[in-house]
Amino acid sequence: MSAGTGTTHPAFARDRRSARQERCELCGTPVAARHGHVVDTGRRGLLCACRACLLLFTRCPAGEVRYRAVPERYLWDPRRPIACLDWRGLGIPARFAFFVPCGTRVTAFQPGPAGVAETALPPGLWTQLAAEHPLLATAEPDVEAIVVRGGERGTDCFLVPVDVGYRLAGAVRRYWTGCDGGSEMHERVGELFAEIGERARPLR
Fold first, then answer.
1. Do residues 22 and 10 lie in contact, with contact meaning Cβ atoms separated by under 8 Å?
2. What is the per-residue pLDDT across 95-120, written as a single tens digit (0 to 9) for each?
3. How far out from the chain centre does Cα 32 lie?
């Protein structure tokens, strides 16, 4: 998924736009630094949106419209946490990633210093994981993501707005140093997960 033209990930394009006033990419209205986003499902693009445009495309059924507003919900599942993930089986060597469902397909996005690597999950793997962990099946296609981070105490797993996944990608790309990312990058990623944890509500 990429911004505007369909070629640049939004987390990276935003760095270049930060020096000028951002505008709604649907109607041209100026927007604040913190604003909503709309997914262009035709181009798999993430567009900055003013409040009016965001509300216009809220509650649009998946698969029936081109533009869909990115929801604002954050969820976690205290009853069925993920103890660990088979990172190799998922094709992800790193210990953090985010997953975006799109129809029957689920794509894994692995942030790195050169950008985001996309990997289509093997058929049936997500279905198997979702059967064991209902949170995964709760994510709305195109507009929500499952973000995960592995650690010594297990795996952090949250349902978040899809633009949060690109915030993670932007932090990794911007602050990565050395072979393992460096202390500042890991600190920034930790801060983002702490923010997600504070905002997340239990899955009902």
1. no
2. 789 999 987 889 999 999 998 999 88
3. 21
